[in-house]
Design brief:
By secondary structure, the protein is an alpha+beta fold. The protein is 41% helix and 17% strand. A hairpin with a 2-residue loop joins strand 12 and strand 13.
């Protein structure tokens, strides 16, 4: 099955006129099942799966041709054919739809709740809300049988300030034979809060889905709104957005490199990388008024310009990085005890990475070179020169090296942006269609591709908005990464992934 087949299949459906920039098509069960078959065969990649009252939406892409489409299946009886039955990456998404909307995937292999832990004041808050069940049975973790096996429960409350998550290990001695995750302990109800929200409030909410990716989420939301309203923003705004995105990527990768080394008992790298990260945060505050660049990107453009001395500040930052960063990388590469912990630890099969459509440094460490800055692409990256590095060893060490290479690429991108930054206004007023309209955006955050889909009401407020974090397709692979590793290496594997609890748990 190829991209031409995808277009042909969807041509039999009913297109939604006010959806931009990619087509959304209302389909029947036959077309839906054909799409599932294409995902299962590997012809397409699952980008997202979400629901609303009476319908479920499936976003798929064909990377080789740039074909991207959304299929929407009406669910008058409250159910839909399971995608996850044949395509495992969809299973947790289906469980979330069942919890939030009440739509049930037919013949699903896993019908356990995912986000609803039985503590909400209602069931199905995004659908036909009902009273909660009086009695919730204990969560049935998957059974593991075999001689000499034992279980180790970890969490949901952890040391430090990280968000809660439960990890249930089944081990044979020190060797992990199965890990099962349970998340959803701090569900924030963001999608409910977004319904009916004015754009200003909605932008602030989406920018807080995952605090370390506030630029990525704000950019995805803004681009989705601009697509829905068919608004063209000033060139300078595009370039400043890219500058902020690369600063965010730089800060997070530096922090992660140090944190991975720290979990391998090499605290020296953590200390030095923390200094570099702090320098990025201070430069961000100096240039744009906020250390994390929160609320700087809005629909229609940006709200903060680079000050007169901003370029000087950022060039000084780049100079310091190029002085301090190479010795750190040499230290990482030449420390035998560190390499002994990271090389071959937490291996993920590249075939599994491709099946899950896993992006970011996790996907690229396993040979999947997907980068939303290149495809589907968005300004100004088409005018910039950069590489998307990949590896095939797909272990902790590979994920560290991917971060190192991306730091180098971000430094080069910041330089290019400063050299080519155009003059002009920062923001425009959004077009007001005066009718319901829909938009979607896909952008590259530091963890991978962030998706935002939304529908605007005729008055310009948000009728429905679905943000999708890259961690949805990364958390399941952590379970695969720890298999046949020792229990003591779980913190190392976990940090090398650095999946977002918050972004996953809307």
């Amino acid at each position: 099955m190829n991209a031409k087949d995808l277009r042909t299949v969807l041509a039999a459906g009913q297109p939604v006129a006010e959806h931009h920039p990619w087509p959304r098509v209302i389909v029947d069960t036959e077309i839906w099942n054909t799409l599932v078959e294409g995902l299962t065969s590997g012809a397409w990649v699952l980008l997202g799966l979400w629901g609303e009252t009476g319908a479920v939406h499936l976003a798929v892409c064909e990377e080789t041709t740039g074909n991207l489409s959304i299929a929407s299946l009406p669910c008058p009886d409250g159910s839909f054919p399971s995608v996850g039955r044949l395509h495992p990456p969809a299973q947790r998404l289906e469980r979330a739809i069942a919890d939030l909307v009440g739509l049930q995937p037919g013949n699903a292999l896993d019908s356990r709740p995912w986000l609803d832990h039985g503590r909400w004041p209602m069931r199905h808050p995004l659908g036909a809300a009902t009273a909660p069940d009086e009695s919730i049975p204990p969560y049935p973790f998957l059974a593991a049988e075999g001689e000499g096996l034992h279980q180790i429960p970890v969490g949901p409350v952890h040391a430090g300030i990280i968000e809660p998550g439960h990890f249930r290990f089944t081990a044979n001695g020190e060797t992990v034979v199965r890990l099962e995750e349970r998340l959803g302990y701090v569900h924030k109800g963001i999608e409910s809060l977004l319904s009916g929200a004015p754009l200003e409030r909605a932008a602030r909410l989406v920018g807080r889905v995952s605090g370390d990716s506030t630029v990525a989420y704000a950019l995805a939301f803004a681009r989705a709104v601009e697509a829905a309203t068919e608004t063209t923003i000033p060139d300078r705004a595009h370039w400043l957005r890219a500058l902020m995105a690369e600063l965010e990527r730089l800060a997070n990768h530096c922090g992660d490199i140090g944190a991975v080394c720290n979990d391998a008992a090499f605290a020296l790298m953590l200390a030095h990388c923390a200094v570099l990260r702090e320098q990025v945060l201070r430069a961000s505050a100096s240039c744009f008024g906020h250390r994390l660049l929160m609320d700087r990107i809005v629909p229609g453009g940006v709200v903060a310009d680079l000050p007169a001395d901003g370029a000087k500040t950022l060039r000084a930052l780049i100079t310091e990085f190029r002085r301090q960063f190479p010795p750190l990388i040499e230290l990482y590469d030449d420390t035998a005890s560190l390499q002994n912990r990271t090389v071959s630890t937490g291996f993920v099969r590249p075939a599994l990475i491709r099946q899950f459509g896993c992006g970011g440094f996790i996907g690229r460490a396993g040979g999947r070179g997907f980068d939303a800055r290149r495809w589907p692409g968005y300004p100004p990256y088409g005018q910039l020169k950069f590489e998307t590095p990949t590896r095939t060893d797909s272990d902790v060490n590979a994920r560290v090296w991917l971060r190192i290479h991306e730091v180098e690429q971000s430094l080069a991108l910041i330089e290019q942006i400063l050299e080519q930054l155009p003059l002009g206004p920062l923001r425009v007023e959004l077009n007001r269609p005066g009718r319901p309209s829909e938009g979607m955006a896909l952008i590259e955050g530091f963890r991978g591709d962030v998706l935002v889909w939304l529908r605007l009401a005729a008055d310009g407020t948000v009728a429905r908005c679905h943000p999708r974090d890259p961690s949805w397709f990364q958390w399941p692979l952590l379970e695969a990464a720890i298999e046949n590793n020792i229990v003591a290496d779980f913190p190392l594997c976990n940090k090398s992934f650095n999946c977002s609890y918050s972004g996953h748990d809307l």
